[in-house]
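Chapter review. Work through the record for DNA-binding transcriptional regulator, MerR family before attempting the end-of-chapter questions.
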Amino acid sequence: MKIVVIVIYSIGKFSNISNVPIKTLRYYDSIDLLKPSVVDKTTGYRYYDYQKISQVERIKALKSLGFSLNEIKEIINGSIKKDLNQKLIEKRNDVIVRKSQLESIISEIDDILRYSKPYFEKKYHISSVYFEYRSSITVISIKEKIEIHQMDQLVERLFQKVYAYNCKIKGNLMTIWHEWDNPLSQETEVMFEIDGDILNNTLENEVKIIPNGEYACVDFVGLYSDLTVAYDQLKDLIVTDSFFIEEYMEGLVPQEMDDMLCVKPLKDADPNNFKTKVMLKL
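Structure tokens for DNA-binding transcriptional regulator, MerR family:
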């Protein structure tokens, strides 16, 4: 009579032999990836036989190839429809894609180190300073001291004013900031150019003239929060009585505004593509 001796190990001993933490072995048991050979019904202690070591080695090998635990479970249980070779081919293709992505990241890091590029590089486009003579224009405007987050409300009131006086808009929305020493709370003026030929006595007190003259200009495309770089381009040209005007060329409001009460900000527009013209009256 042949006697077969089966050696079983406590979970602690098996952890040492297999070089897998006890916590991991318990987790593998909970997800039915690697079940213990015996569980003591009284104590709940787990025991593993020697054959379980080969299963552990297979799990380790598949993990090293990039397979997830769910994929490994499917492979070991034979529940996948595709054979292992096909799964390996698919995994190889995935790794090639990730390799390309990692090489791109490495290349970008090398450029940052080589050229001392800032890690969060500003993604905007800005023109050189240019000069243009601008004729005087008639604008309808609203000027109030506001917090910066109230800008949308001020623009909305301007739309209502344009609608109330049935004005014909000729240009883009513009802003004059009157207190640059206090960027969070300042006197702000928003305006539209209107047709000055149709002014009547009622409207006459509601408009102002932006004077003609030479203006230093910068075209900026990018996030509005980065617009300070445009002002930096112009600040050395400031003289007595200078003032800045922002003209919103594209991105903030629709180009067609037939009904002022229905105008809404272009929330679907990409703010990285906002186009703003900053002008300094010389």
